[in-house]
Amino acid sequence: MHSIRNTRLLDVLNDKGVDRTPIWIMRQAGRYLPEYMATRKKAGDFMTLASTPELACEVTLQPIRRFTLDAAILFSDILTVPDAMGLGLYFEAGEGPRFKSPVRTPEDIKNLGKPDPETELRYVMDAVRLIRRELNESVPLIGFAGSPWTVATYMVEGGGSKDYPHIKRLMYGDEGALHRLLLKITETTIDYLRAQVDAGAQSLMVFDTWGGILTPRAYHAFSLHYMQRIVDALKKSHATTPITLFTKNGGMWLPDIARTGCDAVGVDWTIDLRDARALTRDNVALQGNLDPGVLYGSKSKIREEVQRVLESYGEGERHIFNLGHGIHQHIDPENVEFMIETVHELSPAFHRK
Ligand code: CP3
Prior knowledge:
The protein has a single domain, classed as TIM Barrel (Alpha-Beta Barrel), CATH 3.20.20.210. It is built from 15 helices and nine strands. The protein is of the alpha/beta class. The protein starts with 7 loop residues before the first helix and ends in a 7-residue tail after the last helix. The site of coproporphyrinogen III (CP3) has 21 residues, from strand 3 and strand 4.
């Protein structure tokens, strides 16, 4: 039993029937929305926005007010965790995230802090509590974290990267040190996700943006293994909270991801949902996978591609409509609204209820 009014997302995650396919959008609170840009301007910079609970709550709610979405996602970032571990996160205009003190040596790894979620990351928990209050049981709230591998990539590179020279040097030069780093991040992430659920998050998602740069062996050893630990830990302590794992470019590993015991798997646009469904044998819900680039197209093109995604999943109760990755900054919000309304219109045909 859920007290919330719109239970579609949780119903799909729990394998109950739904009247239409639920939809939310990765990065739904973001720069494509003029109201987001106005609030960010008021905050001054991204970190102030993310670390002021009232402002984080405000931007979380903006897409919920504007569109008919089936879930809210906490406004924060996967890099708040390494920031709290002592790396000093900042955003350089036009350059993305950067760390003042990247992790490079075994000594750096040893010196990393283990933040307490209700102390160093209290602003996130306060935001979760405030958002739940403001949502007033309308739609569920999704909490999230980065995968240990993806977070480690940023920590070691010191920011975004093209070739990942530092973390690959560590991976092929001192595997033990990388495992010690991943374990520390994993332990912090488990505490962090547990605290989000205790504060009010009703579903969890783990973003593995960079798992797809690994060889199959390395993916299993350095990325999936630690996501498995997160799933195991959360299932022990918070068994009723669904968990979604998303490895960008991880299509060929879908059967292994589905076997972790997670409830849903995020799918990018490089794999057909028909194939993804066959690979995961309907043991998990699938979330995705419209190419965000479709939203640059005309309304008739958007409609055609929405229909294509719905058809590729086919009839069934375990599809959550989403993009295959985050929405781009220069998308027109009117096209987003059209996509959402089109999912509302076309998806009931794929459900029994
Ligand atoms: O989805 C949502 O609306 C919730 C908020 C959210 C943000 N980041 C807000 C944000 C979530 C779930 C994230 C996750 C995140 N952050 C990931 C994993 C998902 C993915 O996109 O692959 C990653 C890799 C990051 C790290 C990060 N944060 C980068 C690379 C950047 C800069 C590049 C970019 O896309 O802008 C950020 C900043 C960031 N996080 C913004 C937002 C809305 C843009 C900041 C701004 O206002 O300028």
